[in-house]
Every structure is written in structure tokens, then in C-alpha cells.
């Protein structure tokens, strides 16, 4: 268990180093090293410390947040297909944020509105999919996909009535984009707090993964646990969405791949998701900003290209 | 001495009249079998006794404390349950599954120690599953999974064992093995309470029997006094023949 | 006023003295440079055109996608698209002036440029005078006042001449089609709307609230335009839009009089001195339309 996390930490560090080392401007390795040593010329320092570092950190934090949110939703719904983007949480968060922006709210209110939107979106999916029966995969997915489409329409509507000068700043809610990322620190702090808060809950989550009745019979207070997980997943999604827009499928791919290798012990999967999710998004963003430089791709395109086949494969196998 | 008791208990089955109030006392060393046709409320009764479902009226007491007043984790140390259905949405190995039985015994920051693993392995051994420890649950047969569930309860090691049709899916050999195991547990002062479909297993292994009728009526008592052909024919609405051989009583459907 | 003061101040000082050059951008922010900008990056096709027109073409070192006018601009290095700027490439060019687009560039990226200490100057002309004013202000920042002010004056006089020429002409009801699918037009606040008014046209969607409203074909029929215009040919004269769909509505005045005109796109749609050419074309077409009615 510790070995897996150590390996993932090393890979994450390498990915971040790569993301710092490459860009549309080539900096020779020697000069990179000078900057690391606190020297080097001003331009190299600006490129590395002011441009690449915040972007790398934003991507890492957002990836980690989304992967953990995905892993939590999957345990909560006992369905490996759950993902904040597929289930419309990201859409709800983006809708909330856009509404607040349209109303002229400041950054804090926008984040709060994104959280409320994510929360409401989850409630909607839970409520509708649950109905009177249980969360069957098809029912859940249908509900999620339909509400996600609804959020998409709401966002399009808001973009259609937005004054033109606000448009460019808003479009990225549709397709996540790290190039607009704001300060990375709030996301990183939330990510670290989430991992710390989840570790003591992780064993209970293992039991919850066996079903709510089995969990209750083994001494888990199911309702409070489910609510905390639900709130936490919404908070994580909202934090990620306010920082980088709605990026899809990280929450789906990462926990799935990790489970294939590491099993389904949440004490390993949750911290591993933080590391691997961060790594994935850092790599995807490095690709997005270098592959056809100087043209910049939205990173959501890359994750969707990876995520859609994974999703279809999972769906195919679940039959 | 009683460890689990139902007092004036009426289980809550929507649309059914109240029927008989249950006053049951489960003592260590006893094995109770609940018999009744499909839909009589056997599973609901088990869930009510485990505190997973609220009764319509009456109370359940565990170790002289009312069930509703006991924190979940403490309850799980004293009372465990084998369900009829299980959800296996995620891949998990047999050993991991047995180990979750230790959950109520470990504090939030603790992880499973060598002793916990030893207990889980012993339980798997007792159910012929030791070699399957690293196998994934979804590669097992129905009977093997049933035994894993029982091994999990054994790892949990509560004083009260509630089991919902524990012999489901099991071949004859393993049916007998499980009943022997439960009987041995009863000897170690556990109280066993299970739903059964097989009259002959009940006749042979249970010390007490509760007959549960679809209309909510019920009667209970020591096995010899309850397993009477007339009563059972009424319970199942099925003519029966009764055989006695080598001190073993057997019931079988009669030719009409 | 500030611009003129700056200019006067500048003239009073000898050109040998290193002095601050200052101008206020279209966000109302004043920018002062220690001397005329030598390394300019423009972050919209319109800004590129304006910088060249202001006489600062020599100093422009990089542009964004679709900066196709003047042709020299196409040879310059590229720093991404106006919606997603390659900040690294931009920073590495060490520009001393970045001309941004108020509503076209992402606020986050422009903020980032400011935080990095870049001199940014946001422009977005929304009036004829705005075009002249931007030319003058860019010329001030680039130290190319003689060319820039002359171009600004030429544009001002050209527009004034058109206004004089077409004042009092018979009004023509005009529908300007920005885009076919979805169907989009402009209101009177838009520069194209102002051009239509200038030429004696009457924009049937002039009163709409949004600058670029999305409308339905029924609205167009109800407005019964006498002329339909669309900016839809590229620099080489190839047409990429069509007004043929309107021909099936023979009862519409514009169709009955065959007043469907496709005009060169970028002169009419970019807020640059070429707008004068665009305006002349629109005025000519509307005059033709008047004659056919």
C-alpha cells in the first residue's frame, strides 16, 4: 500500500517536472537548472515560476479533486460509472457559477454558487434516480445524462443572453481549460484537507461499498456517512470547476485504472486518486499547450478523448 | 439468561394487519429457526431484530438495552447478520471480504492487525475457503459466496448471529457443514437465529422454532413441540408425510 | 482631451529627451511608457490592422490568428488565438506593448499579463470617432504620430464626407445578415448599424437590446426590408455566404427589387480605417437599392 503511494508520488513529481520543463518556448535544461537554483535570467524565471508553475499546480489540484470526487461518487452509488461530469455535477456547478457571474457577483460568491449548483445537481440525480427503488446503473446513468444535458442547455441559454464582452471569460465553463486558471492555492488546500478528512472515513467507505444494509450491520452510521460523502464530493467538484471549468472523465478514468491495479481499498484508492488524477491532468494540459503550439487546446478535449472510450468500455463490460 | 429479546413486537409489513405480538427470548446456546412460506415476513423480522428496520410497535432489546439506544458500532460488536442478497459492485478478494467483519472492532485510525487477519483466515478455513483467500468474489460460485458471507460473520464474532437462509445455494455437504458450524458456535455461547426453508434442517439442528404465517399470526417454542405435521401443513398449505428413522425426523411433501 | 494634451506635451519636448508617453485605453486605464513602444504584440486581427494603420507596423513583432491585413502582418510570428493566447510565447518575445481586445481576450489571461508587469493597452472602437481616437492613441504610444494622426484625420474626414453626401436621402429599410445559421444581425449600437444609418439606411432590428441579436426568419419577413446586406466575401472576392434563401419570399420588398447584396466582409466588420471602404460600399449599395425601389 505504501509502496503504491510512493510510486505514484514519484510519477506525479516527474509529471510536474515535465510540465515545468516543456512549453511552447524551449528552455535549455541548463537554464532550467539555473532557475531551480534560484538564478537564471529574468525571462526564464518568469516563464517557469509565473506561468508554468501556477498552471501546473492548478492542473494537478483540479485533477486530484475530480478524481477523488469520482471515487467518492462511485462508492456512494456503488457504481463504477459514476463521475461528476457524467452525472451533471460539473454542469450544475458551472450553471451556478455563471448565474452568479451574470448577476455581477465577486469571486467568493461565484465559488459559493458553484458549490450550491453542484449540490443541487447531485440532489436532483439522487432524488430522481432513486425514486422508490434502488440505484440501478441504467436508471442512474439516464438520469445523470439527462440532467447533464439540461445543465448544458442552461449554460447555452445564459451564454446566449450574456453581453458579448463577458463571453470569452465564460465560454470555458463549457469545456474545461487550465489556461484561464486562477490562483492554484485554494484548490490545493481543499485537495489536501479532503485527503486528510477522508482517511479516517476510508475504512467505513470500504464497508459502504458492500451496500448500505451490510454497512449498517457492520456498525456504519450509513445516513450521516452518505451525506458527508455527498457534500464533500460536491465541494470538491465545485472547487475544481471554479478553477478550471468543467473537465470531464478524470473522475471516471482514474479510480477505474487504480482499482484494476490496487484493488478497492479506499484507504489506498482515495490518496492514490489524488496523486494519479493530478498527474493525469498535468500531463493532459502539457499536451494541450504544446501539441500544436502556439495554438492552445482546452484540456477538456484531451480528457474527453481519453475518457469517452474508457466509459464505453466500462458500460460494455457491466452488461 | 437472554441476550436478544423481542417484546410485544409487531414487524412492519405494509398492508398487513398486526397479527400476533412476538415475545421471543434468545439465550446463548440456542439455535432458533424461523419457518414460513414466501412473503411471511421472515427477512423483515430478521432486519427488525438487527435494528435495520423500525418495528410497527413493540421493542427489541439487546443485552438488556433497547436496540434503538445502542450506537451502531457497539451493536455491530454484539449482533451480526448474514443477508440473503449481497451487492458486489466492485472487485474484492475473499480475504478482504471476510476482513470487513473486523470493522466494528477497529477504531477510526486503526488498520487490520495480524490478529484480525488470523481470525479471518481461521473463519475461511472453517468454511473450506482458505485456498480461495486471494480469489475475486465475482469469480466464485453462489455457494462459495454464501460461505464467504458466513465467514465474514464469523470474523465479526458477535454474540448474536442472525442468518437469512444460510444454506441457500449450498450443496448437501456444505449445508451440513454450515449447520454443524452454527451448532458448534451455539455451544460456545452464541445465540443463533435464522430463517430456513428446509424443515429437515430445522428439525435436526434447531433448538427452537418460530412459525410465521402470511397473515401475521405466529407461534413459537422448542422444536419438538412446534414441528407437528398438522401445524406445518397449515403453514405451507401443503400435505406432508412424516418419517422417523435413527432418531431423525423427516418431512416430505405427500402425494396428493 | 488627454490624448491631445499628451500630444501637445510631446511636441513641446524635444524628441531627444527620453520622456514618458501616455495614453488612456478603452477601459479608461492610463498607460505610460518610458519611451515609444518598439516591440508591439497585437492580440486581435483588428488591433493588428489598427497598429499598422497608425504607422506602427514596423514595431509590431507578433500577432494572433486571422491577422490577415495588411499582408505583411501574415508574415509575423503568431502567439495563438485571441481566445486562448500562448502566454509563454508572448512573454518570451519580451514585448514593451501588448494591444488587447476589451471583449475578445479572456480577462484572466490579460490580468495575468498585467501581473507579469506587461504594458497592456485595451482597445475596442465602438464608434467612428473611436476608430480615429484609437489610431491617435496607438500612434502616441508608438511614437508614430505623424502617420497615425494623418490616418485618423483621413478617416474622420471620409466619414464626415459620407455623412454629408447621404444626409437627407430617402430612408431604406435594411436587414444586415451577420450570419446565416443561426440567423444573426446587429443593432444600431453596433458599428455596422452606425454605417447603415450613415448611408441613410434604417436598420429594421436597430432597436434590439443586444449588440448582435439572434433572430428568426419570421422577424425578417415581418420587418419587410427593402435591402438585405451581408458581409460575405473574403480578400480574394470569394463568397462564403449566401442570401439566396430569401429569394423564395417574393413578396418581400428587398427580393422584389432584387436588392440582395453581398459585400466584402472584413472592411465592414473590423473597426479599422478600412471601415471607410466598407461604409462607401454600403452607401453605394443602398443608393442602388433606392433606385430600384
Oligomer: heterotrimer
Give the number of domains of chain B: 1
- Give me the secondary-structure category of chain C: alpha/beta
- CATH domain topology of chain B: Rossmann fold
Pfam family, one (chain A): FecCD
Membrane topology (chain A): Multi-pass membrane protein
GO molecular function, one term (chain A): transmembrane transporter activity
Main location (chain A): membrane
Name a few traits of the molecule.
heterotrimer, A: 319 residues, mainly alpha, globular, C: 293 residues, alpha/beta, Rossmann fold, 2 domains, 4-stranded parallel β-sheet, 11 helices
Write the topology of this structure.
The complex is a heterotrimer of chains A (319), B (256) and C (293).
Chain A lengths: L1 H20 L7 H8 L5 H36 L11 H14 L4 H24 L6 H25 L5 H5 L13 H14 L3 H7 L3 H6 L4 H23 L5 H13 L3 H25 L8 H19 L2
Chain B lengths: L3 E7 L11 E5 L4 E5 L6 H8 L7 E6 L2 E2 L5 H7 E4 L11 H6 L14 H13 L15 H15 L3 E5 L7 H16 L3 E5 L3 H7 L2 E5 L5 E5 H4 L2 H8 L3 E6 L2 E6 L3
Parallel strand pairs in B: 3-8, 3-9, 6-7, 7-8
Antiparallel strand pairs in B: 1-2, 1-4, 4-5, 9-10, 11-12
Chain C lengths: L1 H11 L8 E4 L5 E4 L6 E3 L2 H12 L3 E3 L24 H6 L4 E5 L5 H9 L4 E4 L4 H15 L2 H22 L5 E6 L13 H8 L2 E3 L13 H7 L3 E7 L19 H4 L3 E5 H5 L5 H18 L1
Parallel strand pairs in C: 3-4, 3-5, 5-6, 7-8, 7-9, 9-10
Antiparallel strand pairs in C: 1-2
Amino acid at each position: 500500500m505504501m509502496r503504491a503511494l510512493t510510486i505514484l508520488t514519484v510519477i506525479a513529481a516527474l509529471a510536474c517536472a515535465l510540465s515545468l520543463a516543456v512549453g511552447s518556448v524551449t528552455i535549455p535544461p541548463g537554464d532550467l537548472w539555473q532557475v531551480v537554483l534560484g538564478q537564471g535570467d529574468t525571462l526564464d524565471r518568469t516563464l517557469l515560476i509565473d506561468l508554468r508553475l501556477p498552471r501546473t499546480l492548478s492542473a494537478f489540484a483540479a485533477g486530484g479533486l475530480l478524481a477523488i470526487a469520482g471515487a467518492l461518487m462511485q462508492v456512494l452509488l456503488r457504481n463504477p460509472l459514476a463521475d461528476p461530469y457524467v452525472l451533471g455535477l460539473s454542469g450544475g456547478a458551472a450553471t451556478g457559477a455563471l448565474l452568479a457571474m451574470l448577476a455581477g457577483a465577486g469571486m467568493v460568491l461565484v465559488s459559493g454558487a458553484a458549490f450550491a449548483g453542484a449540490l443541487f445537481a447531485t440532489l436532483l440525480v439522487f432524488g430522481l434516480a432513486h425514486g422508490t427503488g434502488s440505484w440501478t446503473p441504467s436508471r442512474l446513468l439516464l438520469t445523470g445524462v439527462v440532467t447533464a444535458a439540461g445543465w448544458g442547455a442552461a449554460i447555452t441559454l445564459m451564454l446566449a443572453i450574456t453581453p458579448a464582452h463577458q463571453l470569452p471569460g465564460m465560454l470555458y465553463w463549457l469545456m474545461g481549460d487550465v489556461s484561464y486558471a486562477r490562483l492554484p492555492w485554494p484548490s490545493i488546500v481543499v485537495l489536501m484537507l479532503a485527503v486528510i478528512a477522508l482517511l479516517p472515513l476510508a475504512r467505513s467507505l470500504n464497508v459502504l461499498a458492500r451496500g448500505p444494509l451490510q454497512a449498517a450491520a457492520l456498525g456504519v452510521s450509513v445516513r450521516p456517512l452518505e451525506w458527508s460523502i455527498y457534500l464533500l464530493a460536491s465541494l470538491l467538484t465545485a472547487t475544481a470547476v471554479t478553477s478550471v471549468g468543467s473537465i470531464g472523465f478524470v473522475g471516471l478514468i482514474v479510480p477505474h485504472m487504480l482499482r484494476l491495479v490496487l484493488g478497492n481499498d479506499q484507504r489506498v484508492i482515495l490518496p492514490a486518486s489524488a496523486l494519479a488524477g493530478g498527474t493525469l491532468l498535468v500531463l493532459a494540459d502539457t499536451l494541450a499547450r504544446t501539441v500544436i503550439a502556439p495554438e492552445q487546446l482546452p484540456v477538456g478535449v484531451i480528457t474527453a478523448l481519453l475518457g469517452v472510450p474508457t466509459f464505453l468500455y466500462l458500460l460494455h463490460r457491466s452488461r | 439468561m437472554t441476550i436478544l429479546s423481542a417484546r410485544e413486537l409487531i414487524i412492519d409489513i405494509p398492508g398487513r394487519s398486526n397479527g400476533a405480538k412476538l415475545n421471543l427470548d434468545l439465550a446463548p446456546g440456542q439455535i432458533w429457526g424461523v419457518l414460513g412460506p414466501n412473503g411471511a415476513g421472515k427477512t423483515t423480522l430478521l432486519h427488525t431484530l438487527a435494528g435495520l428496520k423500525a418495528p410497527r410497535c413493540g421493542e427489541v432489546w439487546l443485552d438488556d438495552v433497547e436496540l434503538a439506544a445502542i450506537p451502531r458500532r457497539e451493536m455491530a460488536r454484539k449482533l451480526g447478520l448474514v443477508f440473503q442478497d449481497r451487492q458486489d459492485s466492485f472487485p474484492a478478494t475473499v480475504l478482504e471480504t471476510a476482513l470487513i467483519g473486523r470493522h466494528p472492532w477497529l477504531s477510526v485510525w486503526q488498520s487490520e492487525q495480524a490478529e484480525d487477519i488470523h481470525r479471518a483466515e481461521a473463519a475461511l478455513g472453517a468454511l473450506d475457503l482458505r485456498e480461495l483467500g486471494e480469489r475475486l468474489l465475482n469469480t466464485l460460485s453462489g455457494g462459495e459466496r454464501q460461505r464467504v458471507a458466513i465467514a465474514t460473520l464469523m470474523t465479526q464474532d458477535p454474540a448474536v448471529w442472525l442468518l437469512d437462509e444460510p444454506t441457500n445455494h449450498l450443496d448437501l455437504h456444505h449445508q451440513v457443514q454450515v449447520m454443524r458450524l452454527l451448532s458448534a458456535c451455539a455451544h460456545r455461547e452464541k445465540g443463533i437465529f435464522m430463517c430456513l426453508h428446509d424443515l429437515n434442517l430445522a428439525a435436526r439442528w434447531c433448538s427452537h422454532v418460530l412459525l410465521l404465517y402470511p397473515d401475521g399470526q405466529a407461534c413459537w417454542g422448542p422444536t419438538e413441540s412446534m414441528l407437528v405435521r398438522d401445524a406445518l401443513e397449515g403453514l405451507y398449505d401443503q400435505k406432508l408425510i412424516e418419517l422417523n428413522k435413527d432418531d431423525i425426523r423427516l418431512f416430505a411433501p405427500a402425494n396428493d | 482631451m488627454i490624448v491631445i494634451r499628451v500630444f501637445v506635451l510631446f511636441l513641446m519636448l524635444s524628441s531627444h529627451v527620453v520622456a514618458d508617453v501616455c495614453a488612456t485605453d478603452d477601459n479608461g486605464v492610463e498607460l505610460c511608457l518610458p519611451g515609444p513602444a518598439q516591440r508591439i504584440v497585437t492580440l486581435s486581427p483588428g488591433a493588428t490592422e489598427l497598429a499598422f494603420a497608425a504607422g506602427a507596423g514596423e514595431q509590431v513583432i507578433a500577432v494572433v490568428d486571422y491577422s490577415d491585413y495588411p499582408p505583411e502582418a501574415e508574415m509575423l510570428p503568431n502567439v495563438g488565438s485571441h481566445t486562448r493566447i500562448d502566454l509563454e510565447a508572448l512573454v518570451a518575445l519580451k514585448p514593451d506593448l501588448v494591444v488587447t481586445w476589451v471583449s475578445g481576450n479572456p480577462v484572466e489571461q490579460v490580468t495575468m499579463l498585467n501581473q507579469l508587469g506587461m504594458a497592456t493597452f485595451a482597445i475596442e472602437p465602438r464608434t467612428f470617432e473611436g476608430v480615429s481616437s484609437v489610431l491617435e492613441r496607438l500612434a502616441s504610444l508608438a511614437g508614430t504620430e505623424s502617420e497615425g494622426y494623418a490616418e485618423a484625420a483621413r478617416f474622420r474626414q471620409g466619414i464626415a464626407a459620407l455623412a454629408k453626401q447621404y444626409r437627407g436621402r430617402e430612408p431604406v429599410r435594411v436587414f444586415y445578415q451577420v450570419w446565416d445559421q443561426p440567423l444573426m444581425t446587429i443593432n444600431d449600437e453596433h458599428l455596422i448599424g452606425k454605417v447603415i444609418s450613415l448611408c441613410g439606411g434604417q436598420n429594421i432590428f436597430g432597436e434590439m437590446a443586444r449588440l448582435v441579436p439572434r433572430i428568426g426568419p419570421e422577424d425578417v419577413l415581418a420587418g419587410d426590408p427593402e435591402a438585405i446586406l451581408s458581409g460575405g466575401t473574403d480578400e480574394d472576392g470569394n463568397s462564403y455566404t449566401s442570401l439566396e434563401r430569401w429569394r423564395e419570399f417574393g413578396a418581400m420588398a428587398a427580393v422584389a427589387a432584387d436588392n440582395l447584396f453581398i459585400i466584402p466582409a472584413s472592411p465592414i466588420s473590423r473597426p479599422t480605417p478600412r471601415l471607410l471602404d466598407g461604409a462607401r460600399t454600403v452607401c453605394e449599395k443602398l443608393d442602388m437599392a433606392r433606385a430600384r425601389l
